[in-house]
Amino acid sequence: MSGGTAFGVIFVAAAGVGGTIQAAVQATLGDRVGTIEALGFAMLVAGAAGALVLLVGRQSFHAVPASLQQPAWLWVGGALSAFIVLSLTFAAPRIGVSGALGVYIAGTLISAAAVDHFGWLGVERIALGWPRLVGIVLLLGGAALVLRR
Length: 149
Known about the structure:
Elements: H1 3-33, H2 35-58, H3 63-68, H4 76-95, H5 97-118, H6 130-147
């Protein structure tokens, strides 16, 4: 594994830990102030954090006008971020953090395999072979088991 690949794996694994913490704290915040209110607050914090990262990392906000000039379908990531946070904020108190994340990850893996296989949304095509299919089936089984109480 190359240095860049190894860093990518570590970076996204850390994001997975962050996603678990996010789901748990959003569930608690949602219980205390309301699901929609918790989403709004989280998006304000995320916007401020994103602006700070852009300012520190690039010393400018030039990417904002450049992004606005791209096709509108490329902006869907921001809206989907809000949807993901809203769904986890709603589901985690009801089915548990592990249940919510298990179902979320299963849905993510299934849709990601389709995006890779068909090359949708501008990504390089990666065939859906039997190892990936087995992984998806195992993850679905794991998600189902985690939902059992």
